[in-house]
Amino acid sequence: MISIFTTFTDPESRNDPWKEALNCYEDFADEVIIGGKDWPYEFTWDYIGKTFQNGFNQANGDWALRMDIDYFFHENDFDKIKMSLQKFEDYPAVSFPQYQFFNSTRYQLKTRLCIALNKKKFPNIKLNGGGDLCLATLDGKLIKPQDVPSLNYPIYQYDSIFRTREIIEEDRARFARAWFRQFNTYEPRGGPENKEAYEAWYQDVKKKIKYHTHKIKISDHPKYISEKLSSLSIDQFGFNSFGLIDEIKPSFLNILKGKKEMYLGSYLINKKLH
After folding, report:
1. Residue 141 — φ and ψ, nearest 5°?
2. Which three-class secondary structure state does DSSP give residue 37?
3. Is the pTM of this model over 0.90?
4. Which domains does the chain have, with CATH numbers?
5. Residue 262 pLDDT
């Protein structure tokens, strides 16, 4: 049995693709648990991990998958993922490559995430690790991608691509204030006001977009999200990354780096494990 637990806070006003994500989760998993419906507007950063922990605790599945509401699996990978979870049933987790999108046509293999958690054999897993205080830990130690099997079935992460600048400004400031309450600093999130929080986010995106070297057609995205991607309007970030997709082109070296990360990363991890 497979459970998915997720969380969201006011997804309609934030333009989260929550309906599309839930359709994906319901087709893939035996159980979907939604947390955060009573999420306060102003909160402390560790509330995120606590909400995920509640979802993990409620999960009845042998495996429990922690999905942000902008995470998707491709429908062609469903059966392969399930078979892999059976194969690696003695591990506390497996990791997936994370494809991060700032628009519908280019992405970066951002990192690898340990989001599939073996609750049946490791029920004491906690969601309290990493800089964001919501990554999986076991016996107080972070579960690292290099220490567990790495699957080659990506998480498609759509970030803020359906949001307007106004929504992003308010959202980033809200989360910056939560960060400050936890860590007593606004770095690297700019500040408590909309404009300064947005500017910090925008400069971060500007640095990262040059690493979005992999191309994709809308028809190759998960079927659950393709129509929404096709309907992006010019005021939404994902239409052209607020102009950055035309302003900043990947260098040849970044393209080579992206290919190396894509094709060698999981191979080296799995070679180490076996």
Report:
1. -115, 140
2. coil
3. yes
4. 1-274 (3.90.550)
5. 77
